Amino acid sequence: MPDQALQLDKDNYWWKKAVFYQIYPRSFQDSNGDGIGDLKGIISRLDYLNDGTTNSLGIDAIWFSPFFKSPDFDYGYDVADYCDIDPRYGTLADFDCLREEAHRRNIKIMLDLVVNHTSHLHPWFLESSSSRDNPKRDWYIWKDGKGKGKKLPNNWRTHFFGPAWTWDEKTQQYYLHSFLKEQPDLNWFNSEVREAVGNVIRFWLNRGVDGFRLDVAHHYCKDKQFRSNPPFFIREKGKDRVKSSDRRLMANIMKLFALPTFQIGKYNQHQPETHEVLREFRQIFDVYPAKTSVGEIIGEDAALVASYYGKNNDELHMNFYFELAHCRWQAGAFRRCVERWERNLPNDAWPAYAFSNHDLVRAISRYDSDGNGDKRARLLMLMLLTFKGTPFIYYGEEISMKEVKLSKKQLKDPPGVKWYPLHRGRDGCRTPMQWNEGACAGFSDVSPWLPVGPEIGRRSVAVQQNDPHSQLNLVRELIRLRKSLPALLEGSYSSVTEGVSADCFCYLRETDQQKVMVCVNFSFRRQEINPGSLNRESKIIFSTAPEREPQKIYFPLTLEPGEGCIIDLGMEK
Ligand code: GLC
Ligand code: CA
């Protein structure tokens, strides 16, 4: 079967120009009335994403959270078969149809590769745990207990809660899991594991997917000596800074629940050997034209996160820098974060940006403590779609879906339900896509697996479609503009601080032919922008403020409260 995508698009670097859209398959569209989203449902909504006209959103690629066979202890992030679709989502034939329908609309497909760990029900782990001398024993990380009391091998803890080691009665050893005990970590020092996962990657590339998102890729390799991690509150010289807000939060949680010390992942994350694995992956991708990857690499240290592009640009194609999702609402905080990322990127490394995903409180709600989340959400979309790098929109972000407050009974996310009495888990950002004002928001005919959010009268596709000032039309217009302006697509980035108050974040995007400035007023007061060196006639080509018409201007420019705009600076004669 010829790969349509290759014929459609011969540009190896399509992903630098693409706008990505993340779909959480369980929550996008249910097609068979079981309250769970599925592949057929997604197919029926592709025209909304891109039907080739400006009536649709206009995205170019979809990153799908996992839809592989899974017992759903972590909703698909615990895979039991990497090469098959979970029956609740459909079949491989449905997947082929999805791929074809997407490619027909010039939409590329990115899958989620979750290979730090598998499900405990994956046949590999079933074999590995069946006996100590099973040939696959070494595919996972097994350790004896220490001493007579079978003490834990070291102090490593999971990201959710509790020790990262679980005792296996049958074979009398501990196995390692950085997440749930139902997600045993693979042993990336085992060459058969590398080969098996390489074959998974080839399986999907041969089936025509265009790229992968690499789940917690900084976690693959572990310290060979299994040394214990240093405690969280000890700041190591020259190493990751611990954010003071995090430290405060952790200290409070620890006090409240008398939890043992949290720790820095010095020995179970960011090990040098992981780069070898990523280079191997890259070599596989490079056999096929026009493939891409994006890393979920978590770390505060921008240089460390950036190192995953590889010394010779031979690891990840793109990488997120999640610190941006943790900035407080302050122009300088956003600016410094972007600058830090830009400064640390190796030459030719292409950044990726996201403000929301299936693990984070939706950005609109993170910045809503004073009820101004909606206004800020417009500015967030302006920034996301004008930064230098590939933007990732999280489903529903384009219709300003909010984090949904759920009762304890409604929670599904295991870490939220079982362990953190105060933390409501991640369900609030995973609720059904809000298509219309119907009872189940057009997502399903029956009560969905998670409840639909409130305010679907305002926050739904059907309602926003016809409102020229809606978030949906703002995002659509920004995507359209981005594609029409070379400066936004491929121009360089530089911050502008001269004549810019502390409440505004301004940056230039420029190519040899075009110079564009983006100005974002983080405050709810008027602000004057007056960069002395830019006193020629310019033109506002876009504003988040509905009242502002495209117009010629001279600096100083007055930004309205909470306004963001794009200005074409023209070129010096
Ligand atoms: C990543 C995923 C998250 C998942 C975890 C374990 O962080 O984004 O949803 O729980 O990995 O796979
Ligand atoms: Ca379904």
Topology:
Blueprint: H1 4-8, H2 14-17, E1 20-23, H3 39-44, H4 46-49, E2 61-64, E3 68-69, E4 81-85, H5 92-104, E5 108-113, H6 123-128, E6 142-143, E7 165-168, E8 173-176, H7 191-206, E9 211-214, H8 244-257, H9 273-287, E10 292-295, H10 302-306, E11 318-319, H11 331-344, E12 350-354, H12 363-366, H13 373-384, E13 390-394, H14 414-419, H15 461-465, H16 471-484, H17 486-490, E14 492-496, E15 504-510, E16 515-521, E17 527-529, E18 538-543, E19 551-553, E20 557-559, E21 564-568
Parallel strand pairs: 1-2, 1-13, 2-5, 5-9, 9-10, 10-11, 11-12, 12-13
Antiparallel strand pairs: 3-4, 6-8, 7-8, 14-15, 15-16, 16-21, 17-20, 18-19, 18-21
Helix pairs in contact: 7-9, 13-16
This protein binds alpha-D-glucopyranose and calcium ion (CA).
Alpha-D-glucopyranose binds at residues 74, 77, 114, 179, 215-216, 296, 358-359.
- Any low-confidence stretches, pLDDT <50, length ≥5? 1-9, 234-240
Helix content: 25-40%
Strand coverage percent: 15-25%
- DSSP strand tally: 21
The largest β sheet comes out as:
8 strands, parallel, barrel
Question: What hetero molecules are bound to the protein chains?
Answer: alpha-D-glucopyranose, calcium ion
Radius of gyration: 24 Å
- The CATH topology of the largest domain corresponds to TIM Barrel
- Which CATH C-level class of the largest domain is it? Alpha Beta
Number of helices: 17
- The CATH superfamily name of the largest domain is Glycosidases
What oligomeric state best describes the polypeptide chains here?
Answer: single chain
- Largest sheet strand order: 1-2-5-9-10-11-12-13
Instruction: Give the overall shape.
Output: globular
Number of domains: 3
End-to-end C-alpha gap: 53 Å
In the CATH hierarchy, the architecture of the largest domain is: Alpha-Beta Barrel
Structural class: alpha/beta
Q: pLDDT average, as an integer? A: 92
